[in-house]
Amino acid sequence: METGKFITVEGIEGVGKSSNVEHLAKAIEARGYAVLTTREPGGTPMAERIRDLLLHHGDEPMPDIAELLLMFAARSLHVNNVIAPALASGTWVVCDRFVDASRAYQGGGRGLPLEDIDQLASLVLGDLKPDVTILLDAPVEIGMSRADKRGAPDRIESERAAFFERVRACYLSLAASDPDRFVIVDATADINTVRDKIESIVAVIDSNKTD
């Protein structure tokens, strides 16, 4: 059986990841493929409990390295119990954030060495990597303005604008260093333009798959 395609969607807060993941899944289904949507941190019952630890405000300070290790603990559960089995069954997987989020948030944002993050990625993921990563990009002030309308921010969303500027810069650097995997989509465009771009990305993936 042919393995499914693995597509990740990345970006800072407020770029519309959730709604565009949903549209991406519909575009894949329209081409006749089974698709699973999931998210990080989370994706399994235990990983969702780790998500709660990561995102909820608490009295105990969380060291940056603890945040990183919890992200990868959740990711190990997610990969082994959900993502890898789905791909092996031929299902396409669309994930709202993946390992590039650790590079951008804990690396770019927190300042942890990317080499250390890549070592953890190698340990946890092995040879697994996304076939395509869609980076929804928008200026930080626009993303934060949109995110503010969603309600009370979680622990990470509560960071200052300078943090998200570093995150965004890291995302753009990652995309520049791996142009064969990343596709940057202007998240400030109107919703129909963004959705048309997403559908065109799916069409290219499907075309490459059947060539």
Task: Summarize the structure in words.
- The longest helix is centred in the middle third of the chain and has 25 residues, at 64-88.
- The protein contains eight helices and five strands, in the order βαβααβααβααβα.
- The protein has a single domain (6-210), classed as Rossmann fold.
- Strands 2-3-1-4-5 form a five-stranded parallel sheet, sandwiched between helices.
- With 211 residues, the protein is of the alpha/beta class.
- The mean pLDDT is 95.
- Helix 2 (45-55) packs antiparallel against helix 3.
- The protein has helices spanning 17-29, 45-55, 64-88, 99-109, 114-125, 140-148, 161-177, 191-210, and strands at residues 6-10, 35-39, 92-96, 132-137, 182-186.
Gyration radius, in Å: 17 Å
Strand order of the largest sheet: 2-3-1-4-5
How far apart are the termini?
Answer: 17 Å
**Helix-strand category:** alpha/beta
Q: How many helices in DSSP terms?
A: 8
CATH class: Alpha Beta
Give the tally of structural domains.
Answer: 1
Main pleated-sheet profile: 5 strands, parallel
* Helix and strand sequence: EHEHHEHHEHHEH
**Mean of all residue-level pLDDT scores:** 95
Morphology call: globular
Tell me the fraction of residues in β-strands, as a range. 5-15%
Residue share in helix = 55-70%
How many strands in all? 5
What's the CATH H-level superfamily name?
P-loop containing nucleotide triphosphate hydrolases
What would CATH call the architecture? 3-Layer(aba) Sandwich
CATH fold description:
Rossmann fold
Poorly predicted ranges: none
